[in-house]
Design a protein that fits this description.
This protein has 10 helices and 9 strands. It is of the alpha/beta class. The protein folds into 2 domains: 1-31 and 79-120 and 165-239, Rossmann fold (3-Layer(aba) Sandwich), CATH 3.40.50.1220; 32-74 and 123-159, 2-Layer Sandwich (SIR2/SIRT2 'Small Domain'). A 6-stranded parallel beta sheet has the order 3-2-1-7-8-9, sandwiched between helices. The longest helix has 13 residues, at 168-180. Its EC number is 2.3.1.286.
Length: 239
């Protein structure tokens, strides 16, 4: 396949690669893609996921929030797939400098990636709104109903809910890596979620690679388009 050959050539000749990924990176590990046909947005609930996963809803109806969150957002048995593993290998080789991800599942770190910028936070970090005590995802699963801290405060996942802003420090670091990159690989994202998708504008090079199963608003700006499952594509690459 010509696109795979071109991808291999770019990776071989680059030593400052940044990867920017979304939900499609984790679907091959069994996690649902929010915007795919079978994703959360096409299932039936009393209220849409955008409402349930909002800051307002969390504060007003924590019981309902956590009932949805525990069932639909926590996949603690998921394992890294070929995409996660190849990206970790690329980082170990010195070629990949950072993974910028919209995912909150921690699978990049589980695969061995060290420099992971989590734009939307992580299910593995949780904190008490009152005393800031930290809790892990297993703690959240084991609580009956709404997780409550020993001080009596409600525990909140360290994930960016609708109506909340992205972490400024994480954004700054993402921009830094994108500005320095000699190649950027975008994979498994519709590039429809802002402000995260807008970060791509900070890359000014000529090795912008898009790997996705479907079209995106950025396709016309890509220097290389590769269509398909990102795990299947990346595992063909030799480092």
């Amino acid at each position: 396949m010509e696109q795979i050959r071109c991808l291999q050539e770019i990776i071989t000749n680059s030593d400052n690669i940044v990867f920017f990924g979304g939900a499609g990176v984790s679907t091959e590990s069994g996690l649902p893609d929010f915007r795919s046909v079978d994703g959360l947005y096409h299932q039936e609930y009393d209220e849409p996921p955008e409402t349930i996963l909002s800051h307002t809803y969390f504060m007003r109806k924590p019981e309902e929030f956590y009932r949805f969150y525990k069932k639909k957002m926590l996949y603690l048995d998921a394992k890294p797939n070929a995409a996660h593993l190849k990206l970790a290998e690329m980082e170990r080789s010195g070629k990949l400098k950072a993974v910028i991800t919209q995912n909150i599942d921690g699978l990049h770190q589980l695969a061995g990636s060290q420099e992971v910028l989590e734009l939307h936070g992580s299910v593995h970090r949780n904190y008490c709104l009152k005393c800031r005590k930290q809790y892990n995802a297993e703690d959240i699963i084991n609580f009956q109903g709404v997780p409550v801290c020993s001080c009596g405060g409600i525990i909140k996942p360290d994930v960016v809910l609708y109506e909340e802003g992205l972490n400024e420090e994480t954004l700054k670091r993402a921009i830094y890596y994108l500005q320095k990159a000699d190649a950027v690989i975008i994979g498994g994202t519709s590039l429809a979620v802002y402000p995260a998708a807008g970060l791509i504008q900070y890359y000014s090079g000529n090795k912008l690679i898009l790997i996705n199963k479907s079209t995106t608003p950025m396709d016309h700006e890509a220097d290389l388009l590769v269509q398909g499952n990102i795990g299947e594509i990346l595992k063909q690459i030799r480092i």
